[in-house]
Amino acid sequence: MKALIMSDSHGWDEQVQQVVDRHQHEVDAMFHCGDSELNGHAEPLKNVITVRGNCDFGNDFKEEEIKEIEGVKFFIAHGHLLNVKMTEMNILLRGEESGADVICYGHTHVPVAVQEKGKVIINPGSMRLPRRFHVGTYVIVTVDENEVVVDFYDVAGTKVEELSKSFSRNS
Question: Is pTM beyond 0.90 here?
Fold first, then answer.
């Protein structure tokens, strides 16, 4: 199972569309972790499961999504309501409550891939306004029965090796 995860594109529509077009035939699902600043009818988000961030207005998106894709359960939230700038504990607890295997969030604009309590927690970073890394990023996560591979890419589609990681599903 493969999923595309992006976040914090802050009004970019062409760049989001380019990322979607680049990967849509190789992934089983696409997620946007909020602050797209686009509405629910925007073409780039047509086939993307999107949550609402603190810069998204209206009621086009839910605050949280729980999706199971080919036996892998994802919890997706922007994170602003879970105080992710202070701690990942709240989002980890929400992910645990949902039974998620993979927990996805945005808001901090900082790319993160860690494993806690057997859950893989991913922040794909910000596509448009990166923090603590020099380029905007997004993620392709690949999950099989033994491993979760988190590959970060810059907006141009080049793999960012120094951020990419893999985790055992048996941890």
Answer: yes
